């Protein structure tokens, strides 16, 4: 369950109409944010430009433009708009200032300006010294920049601010593992068990043991959780059986859960991946597409990529190539997809 994105680009905003200029009294800022959420970045830019001519709040427009350009991987433009949004502050730090700063730090990092990203987190922490998210994200930037010791100090501080936040511990484990420090990541998980085992519930113990690759213990604790009503427990138990090589039983766990709850995209995605492992490519494709139809799901990128892979295994290379072309318009930074697209164009 790795989460390699620092901050999600999409923002859930209620939209009463569907496109800028489509109806009278359209709120173009809201329309633009809805377009960002739907990965329609060019449409978003058009909406925000229309909002400026309607004398909308310039700060909200600049923030939205920044998010749209981030989505298009045009980080210099994103930075310019987000910096402008911060300049429009009235001088009193408010929640929106921190929100913009987090996005700006992400844009700096993705554009290769790590020092500016770190400075932005420094500014957040100067005003909010207990902001554990800023410590964690600053640690991530330091780690990607090669400063392991600095990253560890930030991770340690983030943990000290909330030692019972097991989601954060797993995030730290993931980012350390991704950067070649798996043993250091394991230490955070082992310490959590050593210090809190008696107070941890079966779900938390199960998932910690899952990441420690102690799948027997993971299964033991997760089986004590009512997986018919706890989707995260069902997800971890299924993944534990996958790790044990029993894809058929893992698929049955996921499938049984979908009979009760049809709103969890990640369950459908895992079901599709299991079916891929078992060579059931059409059923896998169906699982990915069912997940994609779940409104507001936050893993559309993974689902779209997995859909393409399913078509490849079905040897429908024409459809796979067409989908990959569209995929890269939304996710131009995906280097693996770029390589795969070159392969598909030769088939």
Describe the protein's topology.
Layout: H1 28-37, H2 41-53, H3 58-71, H4 75-87, H5 95-110, H6 114-127, H7 132-144, H8 148-161, H9 166-178, H10 182-196, H11 202-211, H12 215-222, H13 231-243, H14 247-258, H15 265-277, H16 281-292, H17 300-313, H18 317-330, H19 335-344
Helix pairs in contact: 1-2, 1-3, 2-3, 3-4, 3-5, 4-5, 5-6, 6-7, 7-8, 9-10, 10-11, 11-12, 11-13, 12-13, 13-14, 13-15, 14-15, 15-16, 15-17, 16-17, 17-18, 18-19
What this model shows, in words?
The chain has 19 helices and no strands. The protein has 347 residues and is an all-alpha fold. Helix 16 packs antiparallel against helix 17. The protein is globular. The two termini are 32 Å apart.
Strand count, sense and barrel status of the largest sheet are: none
Structural class: mainly alpha
How much of the residues is beta strand, in percent? under 5%
Alpha carbon gyration radius = 22 Å
Give the strand tally: 0
- Helix amount: 55-70%
The number of helical elements comes to 19
What overall geometry do the principal axes of the alpha carbons give? Answer: globular
Order of helices and strands: HHHHHHHHHHHHHHHHHHH
User: Quick check: average pLDDT?
Assistant: 90
Return residue spans where pLDDT drops below 50 for at least 5 consecutive residues.
1-26
**CA distance, first residue to last residue:** 32 Å
């Amino acid at each position: 369950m790795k989460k390699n994105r620092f901050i999600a680009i999409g923002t859930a905003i209620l939209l009463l109409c569907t496109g800028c200029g489509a109806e009278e009294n359209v709120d173009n800022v809201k329309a633009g944010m809805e377009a960002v959420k739907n990965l329609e970045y060019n449409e978003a830019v058009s909406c925000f430009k229309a909002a400026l001519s309607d004398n909308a709040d310039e700060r909200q427009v600049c923030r939205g433009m920044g998010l749209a350009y981030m989505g298009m991987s045009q980080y210099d433009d994103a930075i310019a708009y987000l910096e402008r949004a911060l300049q429009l502050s009235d001088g009193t730090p408010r929640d929106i200032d921190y929100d913009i700063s987090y996005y700006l730090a992400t844009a700096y990092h993705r554009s290769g300006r790590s020092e500016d990203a770190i400075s932005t987190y420094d500014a957040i922490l100067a005003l909010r010294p207990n902001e554990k998210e800023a410590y964690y994200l600053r640690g991530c930037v330091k780690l990607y920049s090669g400063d392991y010791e600095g990253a560890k100090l930030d991770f340690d501080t983030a943990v000290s601010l909330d030692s019972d936040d097991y989601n954060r511990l797993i995030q730290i484990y993931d980012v350390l593992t991704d950067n070649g420090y798996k043993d250091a990541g394991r230490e955070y998980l082992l310490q959590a068990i050593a210090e809190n085992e008696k107070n941890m519930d079966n779900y938390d113990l199960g998932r910690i043991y899952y990441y420690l690759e102690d799948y027997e213990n993971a299964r033991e604790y997760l089986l004590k959780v009512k997986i018919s009503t706890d989707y995260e427990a069902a997800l971890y138990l299924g993944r534990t059986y996958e790790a044990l090589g029993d894809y058929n039983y893992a698929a049955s766990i996921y499938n049984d859960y979908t009979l009760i709850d049809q709103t969890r995209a990640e369950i459908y995605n895992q079901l599709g991946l299991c079916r891929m492992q078992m060579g059931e490519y059409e059923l896998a494709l169906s699982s990915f597409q069912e997940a994609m139809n779940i409104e507001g799901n936050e893993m559309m990128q993974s689902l779209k990529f997995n859909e393409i892979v399913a078509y490849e295994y079905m040897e429908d290379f024409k459809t796979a190539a067409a989908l990959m072309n569209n995929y890269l318009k939304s996710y131009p930074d995906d280097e693996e997809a770029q390589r795969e697209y070159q392969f598909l164009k030769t088939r």
